[in-house]
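Fold this complex.
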Amino acid sequence: MGLELTKEETEMLEGRHGKATRKAMEIITTLGEIYGAERLIPVSSVQIAGVSYHNLGEAGLEYLSEIAEDGQIRVLTTLNPAGMDMTEWKKHGISEDFAKNQQRVVDAFEKMGVVTTCTCTPYLIGNLPHFGEHIAWAESSAVCFANSVIGALTNREGGPSALASSLTGRTAEYGFHLEKNRIAQVVYDVEIELQTTDDFGLLGKVIGDRTGKQIPYIREIKNATTDQLRSLCASIATYGGIALFHMEGITPNRTSIPEKTEIIGKDDLEKARAELDDKGAEIDFISIGCPHASIADIAKVAEMLDGQRVAEGKTVWITTAKPTKDVAIKMGYYDKIEKAGAFLVSDACCAVAPLEGRFKGLMTDSAKACYYARGKNKFDIKIRNVEECIKEALE
Amino acid sequence: MIELQGRRIYKGMAEGETLVTRVDISFYGGVDPETGEVVEKDHPLEGKSVSGKVLVMPSGKGSTVGSYVLYALKKADKAPIAIINKETDPVIAVGSIISEIPTVDKIDIDKIEAGRKVKVDADRGIIMVEK
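Structure:
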């Protein structure tokens, strides 16, 4: 019993690979001891959260700078969204001061060798593990996507523990790294046809509110696109803290099927929709892209906005990863969106940008965005499908 | 003196006065990173400061950004001098490691009263509380 380390791991803990690696190994081994791990295992991919200066603050930045003094990453590592578009921040109303500090955060990560694409959908831009691969990801929606849709294996890491895995190339073997902890615990029969991303987000809220962290086995969904699953993952993680689900016929993990079964019907979805719909909300902010929009999402929105004009007094953010934005520029989508008076914002999102006090009401297709808009930014909210969101923007 | 045996989370020695709560603390949003004052609404410690105390609580809760709040407190010289938990959660564990705050868990914290002198030997996972 107890945590056994290899020779190299012991050397890391003793500080023979530098100060930052030592601190990182202290974090990994302590978590391993708390959770009763018997060994560490290699990870091949890391996603780090805690990137927005708005959340990190000066202290978080100071810690990252200290680690960056001699810390170097060992495996492919990408970053969560920052608090602003790293190039076009000025036109989105971000202050000089904030921009300077946000840049310092990204610079610290870059010094360590992190790939500084700031996105919550690393799997869309080149950080894509395969089935059965052990990884250490933070960002709850991406964790859920990796475990459930891809079938990679990760716990729900925090910012510092994900960074620690990046610096050591290790994580402790516990939780979702062990097959025995990935077995479904409750069946959900979904007796409604889900159409759009907001429907899938609402399903995530219904299940998330109900499961009490039990692993769901979702049945009766006939078809789901990657973009719809992305929305489900974000919402089920936000409302239920769920890091793994199974979806019959769609996701790849093998599991036994639990006996305990619950039905989800039209009423449940409508009730969830009503809860994310503030009566009399005055909508002056429309945001699509939580989690970050795919190139297919952007193409659709560009088509809807082509030749149109966003109404006076309304702000529209379509949020995405920088590489996706670059493709959108090449394809002419960016011009269509921006000429209509909307913004294609990369690197950031409406949940982590410093937006308090700037808007009254948010309309979005994302159940997750609703949660943070209401809780953190004190906006009124309305959840609608993408077509209705864009229609609202133009009215 | 009563001696209680627990488990080391992060090494170090400390001696000071206890600040005790039976309710978990979220450092992110729940504690002012500049002063160490508990600001979570309706928390039993609301208005009290963790600064310079041996903080005794069941566990941590909330966002992982809370680890960085402990680090901020340490840098501002406002951190607790030691932490004693029933079960340390990952947010507190990581926070203690990066801030180098002696921390012990697996302690029956019901046996510890507020305002008592306590010696923490985190290396051995032992605490000694004044009767």
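The mean pLDDT of chain A is 96.
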